[in-house]
């Protein structure tokens, strides 16, 4: 049996992981975030994900709103399995997610990935954050599931 391509799974895993992280940096009063993640030429994006508060308050992302609005290239599906808690350091311009767990399905094979302490950098004074070279590690699924994945992301909070 052939292994699944790592390219599409990496994009979706990173997208969902960073979606959880990005919730923490939502703009005042609206508690929403849009995001885009790219890995190996494929992109996953979402709009209008809900947050529990506004930065710089510690907050969580509602996985249901991320999952309901996620679209990806490459024919994949994915699910954010937890509601990540996000903390902020506005002086350093960072937002950090405690733990992210996602399930990715490609060609009928389910693979689970997780990451702890994911961090994104703020772009200037705006609530746009970027993360480069984010790594997620395989935490479940069979031998057909690729190991760790790397991706870049951008999040805009409104």
UniProtKB/TrEMBL annotation:
Signal peptide segment:
1-27
- Any idea what this protein is called? Secreted protein
Q: Which keywords does the record carry?
A: Signal
Q: Which organism is it from?
A: Saccharomonospora cyanea NA-134
